[in-house]
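step=predict obj=HTH cro/C1-type domain-containing protein n=254
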Amino acid sequence: MQNLGDFIRAHRERTTPDRVGLPAGGRRRTPGLRREELAQLCDVSPTWLTWLEQGRDVAPSGKLLARLADVLHLRAAERAYLFSLAERLDPHGDEMHEEVQPLQAMVDAINAPAYVLDRQWDALAWNADALALFGAWLDVAADAPTRPNLLRFMFRSAAARGLIVEWGERASRLVAEFRADIGKHTGLPAIVGLIAELAQGSTEFQARWTLQDVVARDGGLRRFQHPAMGELAFTQVTMHLAKRHDLKLVMLLP
């Protein structure tokens, strides 16, 4: 906890009162905020903040850390580092990222089926090869109210059962991969809602989810029986984006 305390203190001391709407008045040992001022802005006691900066055994919540980050005007990388030191999830994590590289341009440059999934496996971008392979799953308008979701496609689309060779085995593995992928983010509202929706709408998903199986998303051979192109085989490769670890680039290489 000492590293966390040192980080907070350093940023407190470099945050000037005028930046948070306070008068600078009075003599200050440093140009930054007094501990009492930061405590007041974050609605905690000065004593508790002192303990936090001293590295004592206190447990800041994600909500409090988010308030600290806002008051101290932490940049995206600094905010992520703060939550990493505290081993807490940022309640606004997916909203606070800096703009990432154009996703559509990235997948369009790949000469193979490619798509980008977010944390709950909604597809954010895909190329023409992926659209040709998966058809109706990705054949939606860019401004559609809901994004194409891989799990919804797998368990709620009849087309998936005809397209994906050995559907049952792949469905079981996909659920186990999803559980491993979301990890400590299981409690996020979007993921809770998705799991509840799938469990209610698909007894096959519910049965697999209750098994508590976990496997790594390692990629490997993916086989399809396409209605127009016939039997197809790819090697799946999945990579996380450098600036957005919640996003995954999935490529199906011939």
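step=describe
The first helix runs from residue 2 to 13.
step=end
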